[in-house]
Write a structure and sequence with these properties.
496 residues; alpha/beta; 6-stranded parallel sheet; 19 strands; 34% helix; 21% strand
């Protein structure tokens, strides 16, 4: 449980190492904190100014310091909640532009807006004590420190000491395919890394006098899909845009294409007619496409002087054929005019990422520790017991992702009716996911998760599993069916 601190008590600590120890102890953060000297100094200066203005030590209770929204990565310097109000104070150790201050506070309002409380948003530049607030009209207004002091006193009593239940990843993480309405209406923000790459892609595309290829890469959870779709939406304002999805289309794809002008979305398998009418071509999950589809797009881009953006994640290759096709390698050999990499995960929370890493490699257990409170590991002695457990989790709004079944051969998972299979969840995200594992999986002598041959030899069980399990945002349930040795090794991860 994330805990509040008294900012006066915390601000009195001088040594950085001791500060970080006490901060972590007081807030109950699982991850080590690395507060910098300038951040410590800003907190000291603010607390000192509060004292000079008559704020008591008790009135500085109840603040959450350097609070991160779980699973998101969004951070607030100081935030305090009462039943009816929320006070947010951002600290700047030196002057920054008013545009930056306003942009940060507007984003903060977005992330706090679902709480149904009165939101008070301030920034204090601690070396000058210049203060700003964000008005209800989203305008940045200079204020005196006295107004910030009044706001602190307004929330002095009746503050909340537990806020973990106030924030859910689904309140903020917008998946274009799963939540098309929010995407179409622009109810989301790009991270700093996403926004920078978007700016660079648009600038580079604008500077291109002929055809140009750009390559976007990133692991699961880094926000590639949202960035690519946001780029498509932006480019569609200036010219005909085609978004190629290398998988099966969903209703979300259809809705986006219908609502956004000058934007078409097609599956890569539908690439048959000329693409000459398009100014921009963006390819999602390009590592899954066939070489003939890849060549078709490349030929069109070169012939028609188009702009093309490829998005790939080599870790999400599902089949031996996709591995052999090596589309990412083909993109590198074009070569692209520029490459951009998203490295920071914004979707997968630390706990889930740690558990998935340990699932793939048991030797990571000693390095990655968590209580895994959002992970359930269950055992079923038979198919019938597994069905009962699936019904239980579905009643709790879990999505059951099953393994892609072969077209002609019998699958050990054929008895289970899925919500989605691993081919249909490409580019999608779910708050809660339940998956099955059975004797199709085992661990080798090195502790690596392996799989027996899939009935369709082109598919790889571990890759299909990874595709499904990385779709989860908040909670994961695994049901191990009649495979006691596998269950014992997975259960051992929870001993951490």
């Amino acid at each position: 449980m994330t805990g509040p601190v008294n900012i006066y008590r915390l601000s009195r600590i001088r040594g950085r190492e001791a500060f970080n120890i006490i901060e972590r102890h007081s807030t109950h953060y699982l991850e080590p904190k690395r507060t910098q000297e300038h951040e410590m100094e800003s907190l000291r200066l603010l607390a000192d100014e509060f004292m000079r203005n008559g704020v008591t030590v008790s009135e500085m209770d109840g603040f959450f310091y350097s609070f991160h929204i779980p699973h998101i990565g969004k951070e607030f310097d100081l935030i305090k909640f009462t039943a009816k109000a929320c006070l947010n104070i951002e600290l700047k150790s030196s002057s920054v532009s008013k545009e930056q201050i306003a942009d940060q506070l507007r984003k903060n309002r977005y992330y706090l807006g679902h709480l149904g409380k009165r939101i008070l948003l301030y920034t204090v530049v601690t070396n000058t004590l210049n203060c700003y607030k964000l008005s209800l009209n989203d305008e940045l207004v200079p204020v005196k420190i006295g107004e910030v002091v009044k706001a602190v006193r307004m929330v002095a009593d009746g503050y909340e000491e537990s806020i973990d239940n106030l924030f859910r990843a689904s309140d903020y993480l917008v998946s274009p395919v799963n939540t098309p309405t929010r995407f179409i209406q622009g109810e989301y923000f790009l991270t700093q890394a996403q926004a920078l790459i978007k700016k660079n892609v648009l600038n580079d595309a604008d500077a291109a006098l002929g055809c140009a290829f750009f390559h976007l890469t990133g692991k699961p959870g880094t926000g590639k899909t949202l960035l690519l779709y946001d780029l498509a939406k932006t480019l569609a304002r200036t010219g005909n845009t085609l978004l190629v999805h290398c998988g099966k289309l969903s209703r979300g794809h259809e809705r986006i294409a219908k609502e956004i002008g000058q934007l078409d979305i097609v599956s890569s398998s539908e690439l048959k007619s000329s693409l000459s009418d398009y100014n921009y071509i963006l390819v999602d999950e390009a590592h899954r496409m066939l070489p003939k589809e890849f060549d078709f797009i490349v030929d069109s881009v070169r012939k028609n002087s188009q702009i093309c953006v490829w998005s790939t994640d080599p870790e999400q290759i599902l089949t031996t054929t996709q591995k052999e096709h090596d589309i990412a390698g083909r993109i590198h050999r074009l070569p692209p005019d520029a490459e951009y990499t998203l490295s920071e995960k914004i979707r997968t929370n630390v706990e889930m990422s740690s558990f998935i890493t340990c699932l793939r490699n048991l030797k990571q257990k000693s390095k990655l520790k968590s209580d895994y409170a959002d992970v359930d590991v269950c055992y079923a002695n038979s198919t019938q017991e597994a069905q009962y457990l699936l019904e239980y989790y579905r009643s709790r709004e879990y999505v059951f992702i099953n393994y892609t079944k072969p077209e002609y051969e019998q699958s050990p998972y054929a008895a289970y009716e899925e919500d989605f299979d691993t081919e249909h969840v490409i580019g999608q995200e779910f708050d809660k996911v339940v998956m099955l594992m059975d004797a199709s999986f085992y661990y080798d002598a090195d502790g690596m998760l392996q799989g027996i041959p899939h009935p369709d030899p082109d598919y790889l069980y571990p890759n299909l599993f990874y595709q499904g399990v990385t779709r989860v945002r908040e909670k994961l349930a695994l049901i191990v069916v009649n495979a006691p040795e596998l269950f014992g090794k997975i259960a051992s991860i929870l001993k951490n």
